[in-house]
Amino acid sequence: MEKEIIATNNAPAALGPYSQAVCAGNMVFLSGQLGIDPATGELGVDVVEQAHQAMKNILAVLKEKNATADNIVKTTIFLSDLGNFATVNDIYKTYFTGSFPARSCVEIAALPKNAAVEIEAIAYLG
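Predicted structure:
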């Protein structure tokens, strides 16, 4: 099976030695997305802006494979403060129609750029 590197200018460039996403067969593995606006390179000012932008960045990468949020089968949400769980949940759920993907959510000590939230995803193209 070959793998395909997926990249778009409509989501922030990788901050390190990794790809925005990799497609292997019918699966797309998306790297974690911070709430960075690709047009400005700036991180959103709060967890609300960052959560929305992280999801928009995921959708921009998926669009490169003609996929949508409905193709997502698994996500992981990383929060720098689990106290933001409900706020991020309220934002996250608005990006899906129908059923929700499987998901994990964890609190971690810190995120790159001192972000409040990072979201990674796996999508199925079948």
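Summary: The beta strands are 3-6, 21-24, 27-34, 72-79, 102-107, 117-124.
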